């Protein structure tokens, strides 16, 4: 390598280099302890929720007048992937989903544009529309969740204590926000009897007006004197429910007290807001989110210390419970990964000591911590936390970073054995191998380019794999050419006579290589046959997106019919509580009624509030208990709650996708879409692996239409508006004013008493006030009839879309089921009109999108690889040789995955692409050694055999170290398939490279065994 020799420079400045080593170690140790700790890498949730309400409108009116207008505008959103919305009576919710290529800055700018553009069309929405409101904090993770139960305290008293606790926890370092869960708002109910008001001749409107007029907050003036300013305050505002009960008003020439006409009581919102239960008991929750870049372990310790002080001050009867604690999970995960890292280091060191000897092995032993010491500060600088991906990347990198150190050490030993001085031997590797090692390092890094630059959420999730591996490999090259030569000059001694004699494995390899070169066409043909066989066997390897987590939690989803009340959901939750109570496999559980669980775990698929939906998070005692519990809960739900759409599943890894098996049916007509979806469901149900086939919406619900005789109403001085107002006040209640109580605003709700509110028969006799103080029964001016409408209508990109969903056993992969159903789905698709479509969704769709995003970057990866290789080799034939051996890893990948029964998931695919770089690196260094041998006057045959023989030990040592170094992560759920793929692929490809590459070289450049250099072309 021309230019400055870094190894020689390091040897000439030993004191400075030793100082730099010490600085690197100290910096690495400090950075290791300062690095943030988290469970998963941060990735941007590219979803915003836009909601608007139109009280009183039907689902169809809301969809056409509100949802449609908003979606037309939202379709102009930059970086938009798709819109997804559900519309119910008087409420629309739209999910704005951006493309995976939108980076974090694009996302923030886009959400600003959404707010601005929707604000511009707000005036075009129908009168009475509330909103739209925006939620772009959809991706906040609340890693620590506490629940508070009470015995002997009212909900209000419990809430007062929880609010005080929230205020104290907000002062804890690294706390970003705290959300209150299931705190029920207080309401003062004024419940009256319709008949009693009619008998007394009391006008409900006058009663409400009296309440509002007395409680209004208005300025009363200010008196300015010569020396001071005096504000005037008029009494009468309400401070409690008793103030409301005591109000007097004139009716029929006399004064009446409200408590004589109605029951005034303080209660809670009816129907209740979403509920939260802990171990079967009603509770209020506090969910704590950490600031970006924080340390979840430090946050967990600080929260626990603060909660210990708070708990000591709590009155007996209020009990806090730790529902979710990400710090414990992260602590355990980091502990396990550090153990795996230690095991990997130990394995590599054992291989090094056994194969190289004590002194050379000691250099490898020192090179590893030196490299890691450089990696940690760079990770801190780039704000990469210690999390699932970066920790796995360290182990993957660890198996790769010993390559350069082994190459340098082996070259130094060989030169010492030939009689070179320590200085000459230590600098030889840089002169001969440094450029090839650097090229190989860059090619290996290029293999991870699809991880770093693919435009998808999955690639963003695994991005730190690319960064950490790149940092580690560059650092390992620097250590190998800068620190290792100095260590070698100090530690290594010339080997004793005979110590470097070839071993049995080496002699066996050389004999086999010579025979393979002699039968070169058979060798090349056999390798090509093996590669073709692996390509044919590739479809036999199961496909997977991301695996399930090995955490002990189970998610239990319960969806009742979509017209179900939250009370019905609470009843179902209590039945689930009864099953979990006392189960020895259950550690604890929490239940969210009327909403999904808060995002306590980043890849969680969060469900928005809906009265019919309940989600429980059941924490088993361990993974084995989780599996037993999974079977029990599935049996209970199918037998005891057959009318509910239910699912039980462990937590997933990677971006959230929901139900594993999904088919979207889209088309303009809702009824036709429904009919097609039923046919799709029949096809899905025909597969024995499909379980719990269901729909995201399907069944219409009942409604009672009150048809007003408009002529009769006008004769009586009434309108539809007046009748609707009377019905709303009597049935649901009308908020007429607010009581200001401490930090709370308590609504005063006027409504009829219970027996009159819930009676459908009572509607006919409902007395409707008319001008003049009289009343008429509602049946006199209206008729009643039952009708049906869909409680929810889902749309995707403004087209009604009904999703057929199903669960599958954990042992079956979604891709396999989709492939088996593909012919039947295709046949159905041929019978559909052009405007109706059936599209695969769920896990399979996300996996295909993510893989497509990776494949889109593969050309850039190949371009970088070819460019680096061409700069190093500067020969098309040699470039083609490297390219010919690079894909050989697929032979070992397919064999290893099939033998191990592991799927080819997204992370494993990244490993396969990275293999291209690893194999290419070995090929480049081997070709470089062949050229060195030829420069000494040897012919192609002799040079190929001698170079392969001299590179056999370091290449095989590196491969074996890599394979064995991945053993600690091979059993893991997330990294296992990638580790198996790399282990099998690299081992097979390394052996084939050491045999096939010299064979191809001889076939290209030389024909005769032992022919002199002069007789052969140099190419």
TrEMBL record:
A Pfam entry, by short name: ACR_tran
Chain ranges passing through the membrane: 16-35, 337-356, 362-382, 389-408, 428-449, 461-483, 521-541, 852-872, 879-900, 906-928, 955-974, 980-1004
Record's signal peptide: none
Keywords assigned: Membrane, Transmembrane, Transmembrane helix
Superkingdom, taxonomy of origin: Bacteria
Keyword Transmembrane helix set for record: yes
Keyword Transmembrane: yes
Cross-referenced Gene3D superfamilies: Multidrug efflux transporter AcrB pore domain, Multidrug efflux transporter AcrB pore domain like, Multidrug efflux transporter AcrB TolC docking domain, DN and DC subdomains, Multidrug efflux transporter AcrB transmembrane domain
GO MF term (any one): xenobiotic transmembrane transporter activity
One cellular-component annotation, GO: plasma membrane
The protein, known as: AcrB/AcrD/AcrF family protein
Organism of this sequence: Bradyrhizobium cajani
Upper taxonomic lineage: Bacteria, Pseudomonadati, Pseudomonadota, Alphaproteobacteria, Hyphomicrobiales
């Amino acid at each position: 390598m021309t230019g400055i020799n870094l190894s020689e420079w390091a040897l000439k400045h030993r004191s400075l280099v030793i100082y730099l080593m010490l600085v690197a170690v100290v910096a690495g140790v400090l950075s290791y302890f300062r690095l943030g700790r988290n469970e998963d890498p941060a990735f941007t949730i590219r979803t915003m929720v836009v909601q608007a309400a139109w009280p009183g409108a039907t689902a169809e009116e809301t969809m056409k007048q509100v949802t449609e207008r908003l979606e037309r505008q939202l379709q102009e959103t930059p970086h938009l992937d798709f819109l997804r919305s559900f519309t119910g009576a008087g409420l629309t919710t739209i999910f704005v989903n951006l493309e995976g290529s939108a980076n974090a800055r694009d996302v923030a700018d886009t959400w600003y544009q959404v707010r601005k553009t929707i604000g511009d069309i707000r005036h075009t929405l129908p009168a009475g529309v509330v909103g739209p409101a925006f939620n772009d904090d959809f991706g906040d993770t609340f890693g620590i969740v506490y629940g508070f139960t009470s015995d002997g305290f009212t909900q209000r008293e419990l809430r007062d204590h929880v609010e005080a606790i929230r205020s104290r926890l907000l002062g804890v370092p690294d706390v970003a926000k705290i959300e209150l869960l299931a705190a029920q708002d207080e309401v003062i109910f004024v419940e009256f009897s319709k008949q009693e008001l009619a008998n007394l001749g009391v006008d409900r409107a006058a009663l409400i007006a009296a309440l509002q007029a007395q409680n209004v907050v208005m300025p009363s003036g200010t008196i300015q004197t010569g020396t001071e300013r005096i504000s005037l305050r008029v009494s009468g505002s309400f401070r409690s429910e008793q103030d409301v009960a005591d109000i007097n008003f004139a009716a029929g020439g006399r004064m009446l007290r409200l408590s004589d006409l109605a029951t005034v009581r303080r209660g809670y919102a009816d129907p209740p807001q979403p509920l939260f239960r802990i171990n079967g008991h009603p509770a209020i929750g506090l969910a704590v989110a950490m600031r970006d870049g924080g340390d979840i372990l430090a946050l967990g310790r600080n929260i626990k210390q603060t909660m210990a002080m708070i708990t000591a001050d709590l009155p007996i009867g209020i009990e806090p419970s730790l529902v979710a604690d990400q710090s414990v999970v992260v602590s355990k995960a980091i502990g396990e990964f550090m153990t795996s890292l230690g095991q990997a280091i130990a394995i590599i060191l054992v291989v090094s000591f056994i194969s190289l000897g004590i002194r050379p092995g000691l250099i490898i032993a020192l090179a590893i911590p030196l490299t890691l010491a450089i990696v940690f500060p760079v990770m801190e600088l780039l704000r990469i936390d210690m999390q699932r991906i970066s920790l796995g990347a360290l182990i993957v990198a660890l198996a790769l970073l010993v390559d350069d150190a082994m190459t340098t050490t082996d070259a130094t030993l060989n030169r010492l054995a030939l009689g070179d001085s320590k200085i000459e031997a230590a600098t030889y590797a840089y002169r001969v191998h440094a450029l090839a090692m650097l090229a190989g390092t860059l090619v290996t890094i290029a293999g991870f380019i699809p991880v770093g630059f693919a435009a998808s959420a999955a690639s963003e999730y695994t991005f730190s794999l690319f960064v950490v591996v790149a940092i580690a490999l560059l650092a390992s090259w620097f250590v190998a050419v800068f620190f290792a030569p100095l260590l070698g000059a100090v530690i290594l001694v010339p080997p004793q006579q005979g110590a470097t004699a070839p071993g049995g494995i080496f002699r066996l390899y050389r004999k086999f290589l010579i025979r393979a070169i002699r039968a070169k066409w058979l060798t090349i043909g056999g390798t090509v046959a093996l590669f073709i066989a692996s390509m044919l066997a590739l479809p036999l390897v199961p496909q997977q997106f991301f695996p399930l987590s090995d955490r002990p939690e189970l998610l239990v989803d319960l969806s009742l019919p979509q017209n179900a009340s939250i009370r019905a959901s609470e009843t179902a939750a209590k039945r689930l509580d009864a099953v979990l109570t006392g189960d020895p496999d259950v550690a604890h559980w929490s239940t969210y009624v009327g909403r999904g669980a808060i995002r306590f775990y980043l890849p969680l698929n969060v469900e928005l509030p809906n009265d019919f939906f309940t989600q429980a998070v059941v924490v088993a005692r361990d993974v084995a208990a989780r599996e037993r519990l999974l079977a029990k809960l599935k049996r209970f739900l199918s037998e005891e709650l057959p009318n509910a759409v239910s699912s039980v599943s462990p937590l997933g890894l990677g971006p959230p996708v929901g139900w594993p098996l999904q088919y979207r049916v889209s088309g303009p007509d809702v009824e036709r879409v429904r009919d097609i979806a039923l046919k799709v469901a029949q096809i899905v149900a025909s597969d024995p692996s499909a379980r719990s086939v269901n729909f995201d919406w399907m069944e219409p619900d009942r409604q009672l239409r009150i048809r007003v005789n408009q002529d009769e109403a006008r004769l009586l001085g009434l309108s539809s508006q007046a009748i609707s107002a009377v019905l709303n006040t009597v049935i649901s209640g009308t908020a007429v004013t607010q009581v200001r109580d401490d930090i709370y605003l308590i609504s005063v709700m006027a409504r009829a008493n219970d027996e009159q509110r819930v009676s459908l028969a009572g509607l006919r006799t409902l007395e409707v006030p008319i001008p003049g103080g009289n009343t008429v029964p509602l049946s006199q001016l209206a008729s009643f009839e039952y009708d049906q409408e869909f409680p929810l209508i889902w749309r995707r990109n403004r087209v009604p879309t009904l999703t057929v969903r199903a669960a599958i056993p954990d042992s079956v992969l979604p891709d396999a089921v989709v492939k088996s159903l593909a012919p039947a789905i295709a046949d159905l698709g041929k019978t559909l009109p052009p405007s109706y479509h059936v599209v695969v969704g769920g896990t399979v769709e996300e996996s295909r999108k993510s893989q497509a995003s990776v494949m889109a970057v593969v050309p850039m990866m190949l371009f970088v690889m070819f460019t680096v290789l061409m700069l190093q080799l500067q020969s098309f034939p040699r470039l083609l040789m490297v390219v010919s051996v690079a894909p050989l890893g697929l032979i070992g990948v397919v064999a290893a995955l099939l033998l191990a029964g592991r799927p080819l998931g997204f992370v494993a695919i990244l490993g396969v692409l990275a293999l291209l770089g690893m194999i290419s690196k070995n090929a480049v260094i081997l070709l470089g050694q062949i050229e060195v041998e030829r420069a000494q006057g040897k012919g192609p045959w002799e040079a190929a055999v001698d170079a392969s023989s001299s590179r056999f030990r370091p290449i095989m040592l590196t491969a074996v170290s890599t394979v064995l170094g991945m053993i600690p992560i091979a059993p893991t759920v997330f990294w296992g398939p990638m580790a198996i793929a790399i282990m099998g692929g690299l081992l097979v490809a390394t052996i084939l490279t050491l045999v096939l590459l010299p064979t191809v070289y001889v076939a290209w450049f030389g024909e005769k065994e032992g022919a002199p250099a002069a007789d052969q072309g140099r190419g």
